[in-house]
């Protein structure tokens, strides 16, 4: 018998409290919850996600309603998700999009466990797809916790007998019969396989940093107290460190292709001016055709541009957008995060900018800032940027699985070429605004950036989202090469 | 002949430039645009909306593409709107939601003129519905400009002959035929009525602070230069002051009901404890039934709670949410704006929180902060809070027209009662966190807040969104009265 089975069996004893007990305990709980919540709000050292799951028809909603009455509802949001909320983006997208800021609590109905529960019922725990879902969830929650989002997971359970009795009691009174939905009746019918899937789910996704708490739900008073106790216990606990998740499942399993490195780039490559216009027009047309193809309506394109200052990212991007219907592109220049962004996990601001199907998102600098500028300038703690490699790989894999084509471009120039371009910018009145003292400061750390970039290639050059290192001392060559790389990537994925 | 007719006739001369002219002018334009854009980005004193409208099939998209090539595309976003983007919210909601921050430029395809153009074609300019649309747009744009969002409107026009020739030229080449969409062919057929509707639209919505510029579009070079010139001219102009819009159309026309004032509130009203539980349960059930009724799926509910500190807003809100399915409510405590919010028009942060159909949004403090705390504490300039009354009335009217029921609650307590509650909070360990030095500071300005509140009632007590002043020295009375006010409002609108 698994641990989850034992816990479920305990819950099926259908424990109760009597009224005096309830009164006493609920009063103490209430004041304690209020002050624990207040600590979260004022310290703003964490966000809290209370994941509500378990059998249908056991009164989960009522318990959460009560929490709203017990606590300060201004700082307790309820997030409800429906299965199709992601609209063609990765399955986890809706949860990312609505992540609460640090200093707030949110209750989650319709969490990421909804889909896993269905899959477990249908395919069982040994199915590879189910295994992958489990691993992804484990990584998602580990990332959340590492990013100061506490995950508290409640599984509501009771005996078959008690569930049936509850549904019948509600149905017998016209004033409450409306509360019974078809899902509740299904539980009464399919109790056994549902219990099995629930136990498997809990067993597979329990983690010390994101534990499941089983809430016995036969009696509403007991259920309410257990709900409050579980939350209180979590709020009073220091935020745990996620454990045992050093490598993302994807990179561990598949093995990486040989990653490119900066010293392999041949910066002598040039493209003569005479050939440039022809090749550029041709490459733009090739790309335009791909993006106009009906197949593209079922995909989207995510372009990442990285490289040193003055590498020519802006110019290359303009040549790319020229091949597109401007209405299908969103360009996202990435600079310092806003305060709404700073209060949430690092990748949040990129998740919220993912393109819908048929569209293109261009990131002028990107999530790789974490392992480049934030690493070199010590804006992120070593622990944080070191785990970013795996998080990014996982993020990009989810993108690709949902139909995105992810093309990552590094425009590579030499230090001498950068110096020449900086000087030219300073002298040209129409380019002077492009150069700032910060650019010169960054230049002083040239070698550090090279080291960071090479480490980044080594760790994030994946089969699903490889890096393209493009020699860019010759702008003409770089622009055509960028267009060709994108078109080839679309080709490769159009099978 | 109207001014717009004259401008259209000018455009129908189908002017052209020759190649040397184009080359010379485009080069100068390009550098000037780049530096003007740079000024907007670095000064961040305004956002710019470039509204692209006019006849179909004249190459608007190509000109905008070119702007992206000429300017820094990192700071030039393209926003594309479809007719059904508002999903049951007010028609202007999508435009509010995606308003750019100050310091950025956005091109708008599918603007608010799309719907007006269709309506003008269908009903003509004298239709009352069309008149209302025009007035709403005029107010929207005046508000935008007052809030530092510059509105630059381009109307693309050419002669019937030139439009037809362009379409035929595109169709004759298989490489370009795909660019011709059904709308383009309709222009060729219905040129005359379209021209008429366009001229009426331009005539009715031209304003000094948000002028239309007619872009002759027969020749692409001329069209591109005219587009760039219009934008450059706007960027180089100081941001204009909106004029002639002191009173919103709604309040001017309909006359206000007699507004309540604070000295009319009878604070002696109490509700005995014995009656409270019964009445509370009854009122909650009444409200629950309304929100569960199938009719409510086609509406939504927007609740505003205002009143002095310690008036009992939190407690009243909890009694309200208890009558709801917690999954259908979003509670928005309103505190200081984030930096993303500060960079946009004042009402933006409320527009982005409007509920979808079938849902409830509760604002614990609200957009009225502008004419209360921001007025009293001089956080807003007098001009800004004075125009807020009309903007708020217009905002709420749009909400109601789109199906929202807007209920505005003021919980009124006396100064003595507030003092007693402050003292109780300080003494009660579980309430101490509710009282801060700021509460005491606000209390010192009690009279100023009363004056501001009375002015607010006088200016914003509208037929579509009246104020409910509820005596709240007795919390029990207040809680029941709040529930009843909401239920009655839902009743009144359920016709």
What does this structure look like?
- The structure is a homodimer of 495-residue chains.
- With 495 residues, chain A is an alpha/beta fold.
- Chain A has 22 helices and 10 strands.
- Chain A has helices spanning 3-11, 19-43, 60-70, 93-97, 113-123, 128-146, 160-172, 174-177, 182-189, 191-205, 220-236, 249-254, 273-292, 313-321, 339-342, 348-351, 373-376, 382-401, 415-427, 437-444, 446-460, 475-493; strands at residues 47-54, 76-80, 105-109, 149-157, 212-216, 300-306, 329-333, 360-364, 404-412, 467-471.
- Chain A has a 5-stranded parallel β-sheet, sandwiched between helices. Chain A has a 5-stranded parallel β-sheet with strand order 7-8-6-9-10, sandwiched between helices.
- Chain A is elongated, with a radius of gyration of 27 Å.
- The first copy, chain A, starts with a helix and ends with a helix.
- Chain A binds chain B through residues 31, 34-35, 38, 42, 61, 64-65, 68-69, 72-78, 80, 107, 109, 178, 292, 314, 317-318, 321-322, 325-327, 329-331, 333, 338-340, 364, 430, 433, and chain B through 31, 34-35, 38, 42, 61, 64-65, 68-69, 72-78, 80, 107, 109, 178, 292, 314, 317-318, 321-322, 325-327, 329-331, 333, 338-340, 364, 430, 433.
Give the SSE map.
The structure is a homodimer of 495-residue chains.
Chain A: H1 3-11, H2 19-43, E1 47-54, H3 60-70, E2 76-80, H4 93-97, E3 105-109, H5 113-123, H6 128-146, E4 149-157, H7 160-172, H8 174-177, H9 182-189, H10 191-205, E5 212-216, H11 220-236, H12 249-254, H13 273-292, E6 300-306, H14 313-321, E7 329-333, H15 339-342, H16 348-351, E8 360-364, H17 373-376, H18 382-401, E9 404-412, H19 415-427, H20 437-444, H21 446-460, E10 467-471, H22 475-493
Parallel strand pairs in A: 1-3, 1-4, 2-3, 4-5, 6-8, 6-9, 7-8, 9-10
């Amino acid at each position: 018998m698994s641990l989850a089975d034992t816990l479920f069996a305990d819950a099926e004893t259908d424990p109760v409290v009597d009224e005096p007990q309830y009164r006493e305990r609920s009063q103490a709980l209430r004041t304690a919850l209020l002050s624990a919540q207040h600590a979260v709000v004022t310290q703003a050292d964490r966000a809290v996600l209370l994941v509500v799951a378990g059998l249908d028809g056991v009164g989960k909603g009522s318990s959460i309603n009560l929490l709203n009455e017990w606590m300060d509802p201004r700082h307790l949001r309820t997030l409800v998700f429906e299965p199709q909320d992601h609209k063609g983006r990765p399955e986890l997208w809706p949860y990312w999009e609505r992540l609460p800021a640090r200093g707030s609590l949110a209750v989650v109905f319709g969490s990421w466990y909804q889909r896993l529960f269905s899959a477990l019922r249908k395919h069982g725990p040994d199915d590879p797809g189910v295994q992958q879902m489990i691993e992804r969830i484990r990584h998602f929650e580990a990332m959340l916790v590492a990013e100061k989002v506490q995950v508290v997971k409640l599984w509501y359970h009771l005996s078959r007998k008690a569930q049936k009795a509850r549904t019948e009691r509600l149905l017998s009174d016209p004033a409450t019969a409306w509360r019974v939905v078809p899902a509740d009746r299904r539980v009464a019918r399919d109790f056994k396989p549902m219990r099995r899937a629930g136990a498997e789910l809990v067993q597979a996704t329990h983690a010390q940093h994101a534990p499941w708490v089983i809430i016995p739900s036969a009696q509403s008073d007991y259920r309410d107290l257990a709900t409050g106790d579980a939350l209180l216990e979590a709020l009073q606990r220091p935020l745990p460190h996620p454990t045992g998740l050093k490598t993302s499942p994807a990179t561990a399993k598949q093995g990486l292709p040989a990653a490119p490195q900066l010293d392999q780039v041949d910066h002598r490559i040039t493209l003569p001016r005479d050939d440039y216009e022809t090749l550029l027009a041709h490459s733009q047309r090739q790309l335009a055709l791909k993006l106009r193809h009906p197949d593209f309506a079922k995909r989207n394109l995510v372009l990442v541009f990285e490289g040193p200052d003055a590498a020519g990212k802006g110019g290359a991007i303009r040549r790319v957008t020229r091949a597109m219907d401007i209405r299908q592109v969103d360009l996202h220049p990435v600079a310092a995060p806003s305060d709404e962004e700073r209060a949430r996990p690092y990748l949040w601001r990129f998740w919220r900018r993912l393109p819908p199907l048929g569209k293109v998102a261009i990131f002028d600098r990107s999530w790789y800032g974490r392992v480049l500028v934030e690493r070199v300038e010590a804006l992120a703690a070593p622990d944080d940027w070191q785990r970013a490699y795996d998080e990014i790989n996982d993020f990009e894999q989810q993108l690709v699985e949902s139909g995105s084509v992810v093309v990552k471009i590094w425009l590579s120039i030499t230090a001498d070429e950068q110096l020449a371009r900086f000087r030219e910018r300073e002298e040209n009145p129409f380019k002077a605004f492009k150069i700032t003292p910060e650019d010169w400061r960054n230049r002083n750390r040239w070698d550090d950036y090279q080291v960071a970039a090479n480490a980044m290639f080594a760790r994030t050059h994946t089969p699903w989202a490889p890096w393209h290192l493009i020699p860019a001392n010759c702008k003409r060559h770089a622009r055509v090469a960028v267009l060709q790389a994108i078109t080839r990537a679309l080709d490769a994925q159009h099978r």
